[in-house]
Amino acid sequence: MVAREQFQVELTALRGQIISLAHETEKMLGKAMEALYNQDIDLANEVIVYDKQLDEKELKINEDAILMIARQQPVATDLRRLIIALRISSDLERMGDNAKNIAKAAIHLGENHGLTIHPALNDMKQTALKMVDLSVKAFEYEDITLARKLAELDDLVDNMYGEVVREMLEETATNPQKIQHIMQMAFSARYIERFADHTTNIGESILYLVKGETLDLNK
């Protein structure tokens, strides 16, 4: 196999690893939120343990990408593809961290806490998961139209987050004895909001790849 063909095979494999990692962050967020709503401490611990595996997979992607740069010395678009592979894998690792932090919040809340988890957190999660799907498709097909749509969904998540925080602050005023529990829910909303922000970072990476421009979709 000639060097160029070998490079394309390795690049395709690298892209597959990134797509797989993205879907795993989806699962982590879903399980973390399930643990939060169902007061499932075992599931929360499972998410925390899995985050370490996700970190190792991110490291493997980084090592593979750096090795390809060093060995193949690609230029132009191929070099940008490897650069965004590094950027996207870093965002995915941080998305996993945010899911892990929600799992930790579930553990802090504990079992039988008697509180109702704010329903908007589930709406935020659903939108964030939709953003992951969109970012994966945008990455897979290098589609800047899909990448730009991430900004619209991120605005929805930001608005929901703002509403949750306002309601949580009101709740602390009327139920000061529950402030620690209420804060854990507010933190969880913040982690989902940050999770969504990282998907827009992925959209920015795709725009950089296709257009060669650095744009901010988090404005």
Automatic annotation (TrEMBL):
PANTHER family per UniProt: PHOSPHATE-SPECIFIC TRANSPORT SYSTEM ACCESSORY PROTEIN PHOU
Pfam families for the chain: PhoU (PF01895)
Gene name per UniProt: phoU
Domain PhoU: 19-105, 121-206
Family: Belongs to the PhoU family.
Compartments where located: Cytoplasm
Domain of life (superkingdom): Bacteria
The keyword Transport appears for this protein: yes
Purpose: Plays a role in the regulation of phosphate uptake.
InterPro entries per the UniProt record, alphabetical: PhoU, PhoU-like_sf, PhoU_dom
Protein name: Phosphate-specific transport system accessory protein PhoU
SUPFAM superfamilies per the UniProt record, alphabetical: PhoU-like (SSF109755)
Entry keyword Ribosomal protein: no
Keywords: Cytoplasm, Phosphate transport, Transport
Subunit and partners: Homodimer.
Organism: Sediminibacillus dalangtanensis
